[in-house]
Amino acid sequence: MIGSLRGTIIDRGLPQDKGTTEILIEVMGVGYRVTVTSTTLSKLVLNDEALLHIHHHLWEADQKLFGFAHRDERDAFEGLLAAHKVGPALALAIIGTYPPAELARVLASDDIDALCAVPGVGRKTAQRLLVDLKSSLVLPVLDTADGTPIDLTSAGVAGSAVADVREALTNLGYGTDEVKRAVAGIQSDLENVTDTGILLKQALRVLAEA
User: Which of 103, 104, 111, 138 has the fewest Cβ atoms surrounding its Cβ within 10 A?
Assistant: First the structure.
């Protein structure tokens, strides 16, 4: 099984479904076709050396390599594959939309609307994913002060407030990227503030200052 590849990016390929791209990385004269997200692709420079953390996926009659710029992305991808009815395409779409730390916050917040922003995920699928992933997926919040993992089963009041803020911003006409930026901007306030009205004002301030 291939766990990583270090080599030269000789082809950045063409976009595939759900925001993914196939690239070609040459390692000691052998070219490996690897599927990556647009986020990983943005870190790869043609003709430069790169290290990719690889998930080598095997089917009965096929196999495919999925590459990630960071090991935690690969670990989260493999954790997603363990969930019920989550295949490589859906897992890659989720990781391509939400990096591990942000995905942890989405799950902790019971944020169905955020999961619905993933290409190919409808409301019913999002509801199922919340249940399945919160009980099985371990995702550390990488930007917390002490680096401790978030408890996805006890995010409680703060998570509910974030979901309310997201819904309010959407109703006000803000787009998905703007909502994501605003929610990220109020994360540091959640330990001390759980009032939706106050958080919404702070989120609007974040957007106004952008």
Answer: 138
- The domain limits of the chain are 4-69, 71-140, 155-210
CATH number of 71-140: 1.10.150.20
Task: Convert the pLDDT of each residue in 149-173 to its tens digit.
Answer: 444 444 444 555 666 777 788 778 8
* The model scores a pTM over 0.70: no
Q: Whole-angstrom Cα distance, residue 71 to residue 28?
A: 22
Closest CA to 53 of 93, 6, 109: 6
| In contact, 182 and 204? CB cutoff 8 Å | yes
Residues 163, 140, 129, 67: what is their CA dihedral angle, to the nearest 10 degrees? 120
**Alpha-carbon torsion, ordered 172, 175, 176, 179, to 10 deg:** -50
Any residues with CB less than 8 A from the CB of 148 and at least 6 apart, and which? 140, 141
Residue 45 is classified by DSSP as -
